[in-house]
Amino acid sequence: MRGAGALLVLLFCLSGTWAQGQSGGVRENDITLQGHSEQGESSNNGGSDIWAQLKALRDKVQSMGTILVEQRVEMRYMGNRLTASESQVEELKRDNAALETRLSVSERLGEELKRDNAAQAAALSAMGARVTASESQVEVLKTENAAQAAELSALGSQVEELKRENTDRPKVAFSAGLTNSGKVGPFNTETQLIYTKVFTNVGNTYNPNTGIFTAPVRGVYYFRFSMVSYETALLGGLNMYRNGQIILHNGQFYNAGNEYVCNGVTLHLQKGDTVHMRLPNGWAVYDDDSNHSTFSGFLLFPM
């Protein structure tokens, strides 16, 4: 660039000299050349060629100057573009650095999320297994509950049936003591015993005035009696009758002290059948407020 500038300066100087030769400088040469006519003609021919070359050189220099100016303008423009590009590059570098930082943070977060997801996946898998097991247990419980519900329904039906049966079934139970007067008997004939101390008489099926139990319904009944013989009596015993027919007999020979006798029987009775106790002739029993001698019975079930 410096060499081209020096060349341009030299060419401009030559161009200025050539211009002066075209104006005032020609007149001096003309005066000089008039005294030397022959030498002037030879010199003018050589000078014209030189000036022609100088003109051509000047034109070339001017063209190069124009090109140089254009190049300077273009270089200035390119410099501005380069500066702008460098600014953009720096900005892009900063943006890239920020992006790299964000990318690094995102990668760390991604790794953390992967670990979290793996832990959550394991937890979900375990929970899934537990849910599956729970669902299986629920199904088993549903099946068991359904079976139990069916059993409860059947039991409920049975209970209702039993309730109806119990509602329709008569309530029959009695128990009575003989007396508080002590010795009863002996008598010359078999004697009807009347148990006057009534403890229980559900259904009023026992008559404390006659000592007779009357069956209110057809069914199976259970009867029981107890007795104690008197010390001075040689024999102690009882007979149980159904409708005037003896069912059982129990007795005890006196040895020493009080002798106890107990027995029971289950009977199938028709409605209206009677059961009572009798004292055989010549035998005796004893009772007082301790209720040694009793007569009891109750309905097991109707038929």
From TrEMBL:
It is found in: Secreted. Keywords: Coiled coil, Secreted, Signal. Residues 167-303 form the C1q domain. The keyword Coiled coil applies. InterPro entries: C1q_dom (IPR001073), Cerebellin_Synaptic_Org (IPR050822), Tumour_necrosis_fac-like_dom (IPR008983). It comes from the Eukaryota. Its main location: secreted. It holds the Pfam family C1q. One of its GO terms (cellular component) is extracellular region. Residues 82-109 form a coiled coil. The keyword Iron does not apply. Residues 1-19 form the signal peptide. This is Cerebellin-2-like.
